[in-house]
Amino acid sequence: xxxxxRGGWFFPALALAISLTAFAGFAIxxxxxxxxxxxxxxxxxxxxHGIVYLAWCALLPVQATLARRxxxxxxxxxIASVALVGAMAFTGFLVISVKVQEALxxxxxxxxxxxxxxxxxxxxxFLGFYVAALMNRRRRPEWHKRLxxxxxxxxxxxxxxxxxxxxxxxNDWAFAAALASIKLFMVxxxxxxxxxxRTVHPAWWVTxxxxxxxxxxxxxxxxxxxxxxxxxxxxxxxxxxxxMY
Length: 245
Fold this sequence. Notes:
Elements: H1 3-6, H2 10-36, H3 44-69, H4 71-104, H5 110-135, H6 141-155, H7 157-168, H8 173-197, H9 202-221, H10 227-241
């Protein structure tokens, strides 16, 4: 068995670190207030999105471990995860688009008009990396696991942002810092490859390059003439499904 095939506990450990980051961030603004009964009343969609999002974060390290110990179970759960990701996508787009719609109407926080762009970009990237991972699960398992790590690192931006806000306050640069910090999980994977395999797997270059380009472009659009039309495009989802919120 090759070094790449064995993999050790690196990928389960990296998956666990990603999940713990997400749980730590949402413990501050969601799980903690929810447990203490101080969380403000919100739409069912917000709770549904929180549940499926955190379910993904809980499943991630389990799946990474099962890939080494019980591959048949890993494969079955992987197929079942399609429904979970579908729920993440729908509730995510629903919550984001409604918040943007409210902001555009002057009834919600301006934050949502501006930063809905990189938030939406991150959700689209997550879905893209996830689908690519599924497509590579049989023939190229080395791509599969790295794409899954990249997808999961990308989707925890909201959790990482909450940690930055908790530590440094509600600043415009906090979201950019969160996006940069979650890229560290991919960088760590690339460094591990270089140390262990003496080369960096191309999956890391692809996911890092695409995510930096897409999310960086979304951030650059904030505060420019592109912001409003792009925000309206995001809000169009609520125009169709907003009645479900």
